[in-house]
Amino acid sequence: MVMNLVFFGPPGAGKGTQAALIKDKYSLLHLSTGDMLREEVASGTPLGVAAKTIMDQGGLVSDDIVIGMIENRIKNHTGGAIFDGFPRTVAQAEALEAMLGAHGQSINVVIELQVSDDAIISRIEKRAQEEGRSDDNMETLKKRLAQYRDYSANVIPYYKENAPYFNVDGMQSIADVTASVTKILDERKAA
Predict the structure, then answer these.
(1) Known catalytic residue: 127?
(2) Is 144 a catalytic residue?
(3) Does residue 31 contact residue 82 with C-beta atoms inside 8 Å?
């Protein structure tokens, strides 16, 4: 069975960390839409050129372009994918499901990593010191948290109705979160 997983959680919840730890075990692509946009633009692909034009004008890249990038990544991959940072709207979730359906796939599991705001702030401050990411500052974090709460308020209920949905305590150690995620995936794979 091809496994497709959506990770939800605020910035600093550990989505990227967990994706890196589980992707090889389950033969999954880790698809972070932000990373994909930057790669497409840097590579000068037709999608990247279209995205750059929109981004240079201060606009948001359309769902069609994002879905096109995802489809380009999955069409030659025999395994499934981890969707990190996408979908952010019900329309995106529906478009993703339609695109996966055209390839005989679907979203098999949705996992929300739940972390307190205090822990998020601490993690982002640590990540800023260690990795120097430009988006790891308190002003940007506040905006990203507000955006996450806004879009997750609509998308999470959609997935609770349309896919197997699980909460994982993201306050546990990295190893314990990985064990929780792995247990869910193993149970879904066996189902």
Answers:
(1) yes
(2) yes
(3) yes
Domain 4-186, CATH homologous superfamily name and number: P-loop containing nucleotide triphosphate hydrolases (3.40.50.300)
pTM beyond 0.70: yes
Strand order in the sheet with 165-169: 29-32, 81-84, 4-8, 109-114, 165-169
Determine whether 115 is exposed, middle or buried from the number of CB atoms within 10 Å of its CB (0-12, 13-18, 19+): buried
The phi and psi torsions of 80 (rounded to 5 degrees) equal -95, -160
Give the active site residue among 75, 133, 142, 143.
133
pLDDT band at 98 (very low <50, low <70, confident <90, very high): very high
Q: Kindly report the backbone phi and psi dihedral angles of residue 35, in degrees, each rounded to the nearest multiple of 5, phi listed first.
A: -60, -40
Tell me the pLDDT tens digit for each residue of 11-67: 889 999 999 999 999 999 999 887 888 788 889 988 788 878 876 776 667 888 888
**Catalytic annotation on 123?**
no
Q: Which amino acid is at 103?
A: H
Catalytic status, residue 88: yes
